[in-house]
Amino acid sequence: MIPVREGCFCMRSRGWMALLITVVILAGIAIWLARPSSSLDEAVQASAATVRPDAVFLIIVDTLRADRLSCYGYTAHTTPNVDRLASLGVTFTRAQSVASWTRPSVASILTSLYPTQLGLVEQPAPRDQIFEWREKRGQSSHVLLPNIDTMAEIMQRMGFFTGAFVNQPALNHRRSYQQGFREWFYPVTPDTVIQYDPEGEFTAQGWPTVKDADRGDYALVRTFDVWLGQRAQLPKLFAWVHLLTPHVPYRPPPPFAPPPPPEGSDRKLFKSARYDGEVRTIDDMVGKLLDSIDRHVGLERSLIVFTSDHGEEFHDHEMHGHGHSLHREVLHVPLIVAGPSLPPGRSIDAYVRTIDILPTILDLAGGPPTGHEGMEGTTLAKLIAEDGRIRSVYSEAMLYGSTERSLIEGEYKLMYDQQERACRLFDVSADPDERVDLASEQPAHASAMRRNLESLHKRLTEDHRQIRRKYYETANPTEREQELQRERGLEALRALGYIGD
Questions:
Q1: Is the pLDDT of residue 45 over 50?
Q2: Long-range CB contact pairs, 458-462, < 8 A, 24+
């Protein structure tokens, strides 16, 4: 017996065995790393991926204050259908319009550019027009230049069939808002809706239809239902619905009309009550729109964005209507985004802007990664996922009185009067109704924000010049001469201080 040799043999055997096991383990790891994705990995990847919608719907309700909806905390009445939409998606509680009236606001929603960049800014009043004791401003332009991409044009390039249903004369008699829409419907009487024929003579919607906005809106909602039933089989749909009912003259139909006020009561309060009746009417229409979408396409397959172009003043700051100021009651608008892969019933208490709507839709609808180039807005998809913050909120574009611009940075809001060269500063966290002007108490803060505001406006003005220049480089000689005349006119307005550099 040779114990040592036997012992050496046993040790060698165990060593070889350990080495073999190690090799097998390493080989197994290599094979595992090189393998195709397992079903578990695929499930993880699928859950992380964004589910793309088959249809996208942009619903804009004209003149709708966010604080008159029950999902935004209003208690005088309920808006169950808007609340239903909020329960399906994400509600942004501090969304801000970038303009105080319809044309520039809607143009900014459709392009993700500011009114100054689009040329939709004010100038001195024509023919001394006065409204509610204030000068009514003229406008440098009413149309979008053809070289500016709109939401509908981008969606069409992404393969979506595009349709619009618009009850707003300010938009319906300007062809440029129709860029990119294959079909466009609008009311010509309170009960009659027609389709605009791009090859034919354009018939403008009449302003008298505003007096019966609810009837025109209901007719448009019925037309939308028929259209959606006919188009539902298309692989991709995009529709914009613009309803007018909350706009003056506040004539809600039964059963939403308030009872007549007692003799001698405050007429201002009655106006507000009638406006509430209009909001309840709109809520009924929103319910019908949601039912149509659910019936023909399916809510679970649809991306729905609900917002407004601006709010409405009820003498909150001594004014009535909109276009007079950039206070909270005019700029704070609802914004609800519901769709596949979005968390239901969530609220985000962060400042966002209406110029963020277009990049958000593109992100959620599967647009190209570089689809936001040239846009001022930021996609809210990241905000929903990460609960981030928008750095600042800039608003402009007046219809009456002085030219004002506003800037929100952090919890402070600056309002700057271009004609008076005067600033007002508000701490909107402590003073959300913007009652206490802190400009005299915090002059350094007000001056710093004013410099930021003026720097931004200067850059936006230069952007517009570049956009115009690129367009008129390819325009005919007559158009170029018209552009030169327009530029000379703008220089005169700058010299008078009506518009910035």
A1: no
A2: 458/500, 458/501, 460/114, 460/116, 460/117, 461/116, 461/499, 461/500, 461/501
Half-sphere exposure (Cβ direction) of 308: Cα atoms closer than 13 Å? 33
Q: What 3-state class would DSSP assign to 188?
A: strand
Q: How far apart are CA 161 and CA 196, in angstroms?
A: 16
Specify the pTM.
0.85
Q: Measured between alpha carbons, how far is 90 from 448 in angstroms, rounded to an integer?
A: 34
Domains in the chain (CATH in brackets) are 49-386 (3.40.720.10), 402-501 (3.30.1120.10)
One-letter amino acid at 425 equals: L
Q: How far apart are CA 137 and CA 127, in angstroms?
A: 10
Quick one: which of 277, 182, 297 has its CA closest to 228? Answer: 297
Give the position of tokens 């480089």: 473
C-beta separation of 161 from 240 below 8 A: no
Residues 6+ apart with CB under 8 A from 122: 137, 138, 139, 140, 397, 398, 399, 403, 498, 499
> What does the block give as tokens for 434?
């913007």
Q: What is the pLDDT of residues 306-341, one digit of tens each?
A: 999 999 999 888 888 999 999 999 999 999 999 998
Q: For residue 238, how many other CB atoms are within 10 A of its CB?
A: 27
Q: How many helices and strands, by DSSP H and E, does the chain display?
A: 14, 19
Residue 53 DSSP SS3: coil
**Band of the pLDDT at 492, cuts 50, 70, 90?**
low
For 239, the 3-state DSSP assignment is strand
Which whole-number Å values give the CA distances from 122 to 115, 125, 487, in the listed order? 10, 9, 14
Give 17's pLDDT tier (boundaries 50, 70, 90).
Answer: very low
Query: Which has the closest alpha carbon to 237: 306, 112, 152?
Result: 152
CA distance 126 to 138: 6
